[in-house]
Amino acid sequence: MHKRLKQWMMAASAIMLFSNCNNGPVTYRNDTLRTGTIHISVDESFKPVIDSQIKVFESSFEGAHVIAHYKPEAECIKDLLVDSIRMVIITRPLMPVEEQRLRDTLSFIPVQGRIAYDAVTVLVNRQSKDSILTTDDLRQILDGTSKLPLRPVMDGLAATSTVRYAIDSILRGKPLSSKVTAATSSQGVIEYVADQKDAIGFVGVSWIGNPEDSAQLSFQKKVTIASLRCETCPEEAYVKPYQANIATLRYPLVRGLHYILKENYEGLGSGFTNFLIYERGQLIFRRAYLWPARMKFEIRNAGIDE
Fold this sequence. Notes:
Helix 2 links the parallel strand 1 and strand 2 (64-71). The longest helix is centred in the first third of the chain and has 19 residues, at 2-20. The protein is of the alpha/beta class. Strands 1, 2, 3, 4, 6, 7, 8, 9, 12 and 13 form a ten-stranded mixed sheet that branches. Strands 5-10-11 form a three-stranded mixed sheet. It has two domains: 30-117 and 256-292, D-Maltodextrin-Binding Protein, domain 2 (3-Layer(aba) Sandwich); 118-254, D-Maltodextrin-Binding Protein, domain 2 (3-Layer(aba) Sandwich), CATH 3.40.190.10. It has eleven helices and 13 strands. It comes from Flavihumibacter solisilvae. InterPro entries: PBP_domain, Phosphate_ABC_transporter. It holds the Pfam family PBP_like_2. Keywords: Signal.
């Protein structure tokens, strides 16, 4: 009897060890698809829309609690190696070297996928005369060679997805100019542009693109959303980051929104992911004026004053 009890205790200890260690396969958690509590790390650029997703998800499943930590993108990626973080939401998929590191650490590769399309929105002060721009204009503003009287402000000088996008896609690998000002958040960028007549800011459309959201509507009254030259249009056109322009890539600064799920069983992380990729979650992205990546919606031609 004593021998059997000892064997049972050793087995229980082994189960506890594997459930708390991040270098082995996940075998047990106190959560299901619709119940439990999980922590996720989210790119701060998407706080408004992810807050909406969590609110609806939790109201649909009373036993579910998703606690979001909003951070710069680079910090979210680091959190993939933190035991308590079940999922991250950022603007890019994992690179092969990151997948391999996670395979070695977790004994499995996290599930990942694109859930929506976002746009980097360019903002200028309400009194600015320079609200119609090209990507070449933006490149020169960010590298410090522009003759336009505009001072750029970003949501940081490093580690954020907007800064990475500016360096990779606008500057094509060149560094930001020393003239670039760093705000502490996307909201900080909006407030800075509203206060400084010569400022030009860069934020995700999730922060300012929804005219049905009272907070974003108040932001829209403080700043002007710049029109950018469409690089794929047969005729010369300058467009704003409206949904149709994001969907058709007429707007030049479009990026994806990706989830990376660090879970190899049907837990609450899988339940929240299912919510995001299927109809209800996709409709929330649509209502937030991002473009859903997992559902097809019809785009109709209409007369829009850009």
